[in-house]
Amino acid sequence: MIASYNLKTNQVYLFSIPRDLWLPALKSKANAAYQIGFPEKNGLGLAKTVFGNVLGIPVHYGLRVDFRGFVKAIDVIDGIEVVVEKPFDDYLYPIQGSESDSCGNTEKEMEFNEEEARKLNIEPGKRVILITKENQIATDSAEEKKGMKYFSCRYEHISFEKGSTKMSGAVALAYVRSRHGTNGEGSDFARSKRQQKIIEAVRNKLLSLETLTNPQKISDLLETLGKSVDTDISIKEAIDFYKLSKKISSTANFILDDSAKSGLPDGRKSLLVHPPASDYGGAYVLVSQDDDFSLVQEYVRKILGGEITEYDATASARTRN
User: Fold this and answer.
1) Overall average pLDDT of the 280-299 stretch
2) CA pair distance 264, 260, nearest whole angstrom
3) Of the N and C termini of the chain, which has fewer Cβ atoms inside 10 Å?
C-alpha cells in the first residue's frame, strides 16, 4: 500500500497494489518484492523502487510491520473500532503453526507420470506425498478448496457480522488477512479495502485523547514497533509525520483493479486484466494493460492532480479481451 500526502490540501491518497500483480522486472508477484530484496538487506528499498515504478511516483519512505507487531500494537492501544460493512465467513482461515500439519494422513513415496503430475499440479517423477485413510492422494496444490477436505486441521472458521465492532489485534489481523470470505469478500481487492479500513481505524485511535494522554501506552507502542518494524524513517521524521497526521482533512482510497470509470483512453475498460494462467506457469496473476504500467501511471497522475474525483471501487478484475 502506498500513501501520498498533499501538503496543500492535507489530503491523503491510499493506493492498494494487489498481491497478485505481476512485476515483469522481478518476474514475480508483488507480494514477493520485499523477500526478493531481503537477502541483500534491501527488501524495503526494492519494494519502494518497484512499487514506485508501478504508480509512476517516487516513494520516499518505507515501513514494514510484521504480523506479530501488528497484533501487539493494536492490543497496546486497547483495540480499534471498525465498521464492518459486509458480513462474511471464512472457512479456510489458516491456523498459525499448523501450516504443515499432516492431519492424520500418512506419507508414501509414489512415482507420477506427466499426465498424473499435471492433474495434481506437481512435478513428474518420484515424490513423497500424503495418503488419506481412504487411500486418496491428499493434496491441496491442485485445487485450493481441497485443503478443507484433506487438511481441515490446518484451518479454522472465522466470521464477521455487519456493524461496528471493537477488534483486538488478533481479530483485526484475521479481518485483513482473510482470503476466502463469503459474500464477495474472498478477493484480493476486498482484502485491500479491509486493510485500508484498518489503517484508518488505527490512525483514529492513535490520535484519540485516550492514547495521547497516556504516556505508558505511547512508551509501550514505541517499544513494540521497535522490535517489529523495518523502516527508513528517522525518529525526527516520524515526529513530523505524526504532526502531519493531525492535519489530515480527508483520505481517498484507491485499489488497482477494474473499477476506473473515467480517465482511461478509448477502448480501455480497466487498469488491470487477468491473462491466461498458462502464460505464467499456471499461476493466477494480474497484469497491466501496458507492460510498462504507463496506463496505471497516467491514471494515478490524474488522481493526484485532481482530474479524477469519482471512483467506484469494486472487488473484481476483468479478463483480457
Assistant:
1) 86
2) 8
3) C
User: CA neighbours within 13 Å on the CB side: how many for 302?
Assistant: 17
Q: Is the pLDDT of residue 140 over 70?
A: no
The CATH code belonging to domain 1-62+248-321 is 3.30.420
Query: Are the C-beta atoms of residues 120 and 142 closer than 8 Å to each other?
Result: yes
pTM: 0.70
Q: Which of 219, 170, 178, 217 is nearest to 195 (CA)?
A: 178
315: CB partners within 8 A, 6+ apart: 184, 185, 187, 189, 190, 193, 257
Mutual orientation of helices 215-228 and 67-76 as an angle, nearest 10°? 180
259: which residues sit within 8 A by CB, 6+ positions away?
270, 311, 312, 313, 314
Segments making up each domain of the chain, as ranges? 1-62+248-321, 102-150
